Structure to design on (360 residues):
């Protein structure tokens, strides 16, 4: 229950025990693999910030254009083809829900970031099991501001790419190039250039945001100084920063891809087992005491069990990758600050005066 002051008061650039890049990466991997609390907390942040969509979409049946038109009927568009007031009302309600979700993601995601940053910097054994003071509201607002600022270039890139992606979607819906390939894959291939630009913009913005958030929490500086410091850090340490980004985001990409493949495959098994009308007879016993039974219900239960195991594995991989990525960026930021000799904020953005604690 003790405060964190005094445990990390300064990062010394002349510390001979300070690990190099490989040592920091190994320490981050250990943090992401060996501590269940860090995995669960990192998973919560990942799911709330949109990871749930990546895991649910492979097991969701997307409606077709005809299905959407049949569901909305004449409510969405009038006879003249113009949008109706009903469509604008639905869009407004959806915008309110999306805004509320983003606000919740900003706040809870900031709490998760502070917890993971302090836990990764804490060198004590079982440090994640100790209750910690809640972050100050000022720190949370500044972290949300950093995330919002870093979303601006991504929004600009998406707006620039929207026309090209829309044209590709329209062409694939009207004149499909390959009906055997899923529509999202055909759209990504058809608009590969714009998709790459959007992806690179997101990667750079996410990297700057991750470094800036850690500088804000560790140094207790403002939003502007944290963002400028993150950009300067990338310019001063291009090789180390690029290696950290490649390894951490690469691991997350592999984990997400494996999770999507596993859930999509097992969901397809469940769909096949549910729709199959052909009996699957299996003879049990030895004649004349044998009996023949249809094993389709058992096959469906096995498919459902496989889907459940795939979901559990996907959640575990996502949590481990997220915790590892967070610890890797924290270690990279701490190493960069060690090179400048700047002092760490002892409270790490935590409110030491309050009696509220994250583990109570």
């Amino acid at each position: 229950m003790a405060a964190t002051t005094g445990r990390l008061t300064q990062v010394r650039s002349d510390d001979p025990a300070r690990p190099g890049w490989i040592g920091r990466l190994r320490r981050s991997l250990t943090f992401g693999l060996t501590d269940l609390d860090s995995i669960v907390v990192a998973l919560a942040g990942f799911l709330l910030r949109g990871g749930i969509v990546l895991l649910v979409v492979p097991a969701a049946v997307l409606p077709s254009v005809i299905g959407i038109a049949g569901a909305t009927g004449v409510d969405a568009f009038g006879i003249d083809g113009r949008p109706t007031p009903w469509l604008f009302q639905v869009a407004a309600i959806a915008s309110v829900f999306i805004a509320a979700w983003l606000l919740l993601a900003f706040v809870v995601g900031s709490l998760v970031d502070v917890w993971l940053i302090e836990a990764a910097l804490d060198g004590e054994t079982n440090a994640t099991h100790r209750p910690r003071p809640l972050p100050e509201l000022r720190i949370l607002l500044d972290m949300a501001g950093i995330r919002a600022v870093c979303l601006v270039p991504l929004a600009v890139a998406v707006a620039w790419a929207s026309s090209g992606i829309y044209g590709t979607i329209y062409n694939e819906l009207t004149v499909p190039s390959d009906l055997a390939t899923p529509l999202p894959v055909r759209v990504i291939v058809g608009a590969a250039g714009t998709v790459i630009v959007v992806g690179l913009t997101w990667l750079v913005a996410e990297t700057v945001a991750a470094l800036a958030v850690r500088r804000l929490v560790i140094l207790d500086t403002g939003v502007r100084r944290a963002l400028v410091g993150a950009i300067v850090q990338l310019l001063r340490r291009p090789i180390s920063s690029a290696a950290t980004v490649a390894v951490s985001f690469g691991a997350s990409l592999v984990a997400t891809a494996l999770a999507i493949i596993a859930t999509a495959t097992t969901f397809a098994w469940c769909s096949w087992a549910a729709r199959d009308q052909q009996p699957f007879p299996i003879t049990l016993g030895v004649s004349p005491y044998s009996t023949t039974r249809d094993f389709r219900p058992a096959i469906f239960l096995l498919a459902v069990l496989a889907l459940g195991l795939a979901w559990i594995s996907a959640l575990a991989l996502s949590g481990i990758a997220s915790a590892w990525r967070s610890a890797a960026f924290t270690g990279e930021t701490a190493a960069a600050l060690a090179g400048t000799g700047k002092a760490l904020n002892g409270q790490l953005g935590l409110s030491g005066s309050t009696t509220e604690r994250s583990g109570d």
